[in-house]
Amino acid sequence: MALSCSRLCSHLSLTRLFGLRTNRITIGVYSPNVSYQSRLPLCRQYSSSKVRRGIGRYFQWANSKYEGFLKRRFPRFYLLYHTFMKGFKLLFQDAKEVRRIKAKMINGVKFQDLPYREMEKLRQFRRDMIKAVPLVVISIPPFANYLVFVLMYFFPRQLLIPHFWTPRQQIEFRRVYHSLRVRHHLPIIEGLKDTSGQVKNSQLQSRLKELCAKVQGGETPKLSEILVVRSLFSGPPLGMKRMSVDHMRHISSLLFLTPRLPGFLISRRLNSYALELLQLDRALSRLGPQQLSDYELRQACYVRGLNSDSLGVNQCLEWLFQWLQVSSSLKDSEVSLLLHSIVFLSANYPSGPGQHL
User: 51 vs 41, 44, 54, 58, CA distance in Å?
Assistant: First the structure.
């Protein structure tokens, strides 16, 4: 009996041992299959990524061949095509940059605390989008995109934003726009002369008349001659909310703002524009004009009323330093003088000795 029990126990032990070995063998045989199956998605992902890269290289090759064909056979159309493709890339980059800046502002950074380049990017992008909205609306109806393309081809200055201008068009269109705002220099100076009769302080009245006469005589006034009449531009008769409607309309046209609005709306828009320009100047003073690239320098001068394409870099830098000296001396309540300084400082620059202090 004891012998049979011992045999039974040994048999059970062998069975258990065999079972364990069987399980181990099964697990050992199964685990490679599991790991292989777990690797399948990785292999598929690796293969699909290789396919995508291959397709991307093929499209790049086909696009380069297509561009080469256009450049050889249709050079004018190629220039248009290349400008549009480059413009879309720049616009996409600007949109990403603006989104990043907006996220920073949502997290608590105020507009006036932004660096100069980010502040300028927001300002210019907003103006570009305002110009682009009508074209987008026109292209909504079916088949209207063909009409839009024709309009863009024949009226690029009126319909396209600078991203889609060729380098030659940028210079040409800036010259055209500058000639349009120059038309309002004389009416603004004449308006100041007429308004000088309302100044009760005889000394300030004579200083304002002398300032206007100097600009009309072809000279650029000294900075001290501009700043001495600053008090007239914070209240009556030349404060932002005290100017006549006709005078504000000329200033709006000078800044490419719509002049065909009620007087209180024009005043509000001019005040908003001037305060934004003042904050931009303060950010530029913190950065230093000498830190700007040649393109940024010319663009900064152009925004402030100067036709910078006809000037050298040193002349642009000298003029911008003068502008910032005036701007840094003004309070928020005196921004009307900042807008008039567009005429005072740019109408006759470069000129003779009158451009120096």
Answer: 15, 10, 5, 10
Q: For residues 63 and 333, what is the distance between their CA atoms, to the nearest angstrom? A: 56
Question: Do residues 116 and 284 touch, judged by C-beta distance below 8 A?
Answer: yes
User: What is d(CA 87, CA 164) in angstroms, rounded to the nearest whole number?
Assistant: 5
Provide the pLDDT for residue 74: 75
Q: What residues does each domain of the chain span? A: 73-163, 182-355
Q: How far apart are CA 17 and CA 11, in angstroms?
A: 10
Mean pLDDT, residues 325-351: 95
318 has a pLDDT exceeding 50: yes
Per-residue confidence band for 179, with pLDDT thresholds at 50, 70 and 90 = very high
Q: How far is it, in rounded angstroms, from Cα 356 to Cα 244?
A: 32
Q: Give residue 61's pLDDT.
A: 76
> pLDDT of 129-146, one tens digit each?
988 888 778 777 877 766
Binned at pLDDT 50, 70 and 90, residue 4 comes out as very low
Which of these, 118, 120, 127, lies nearest to 99 by C-alpha position?
118
| Res 264 pLDDT > 80 | yes
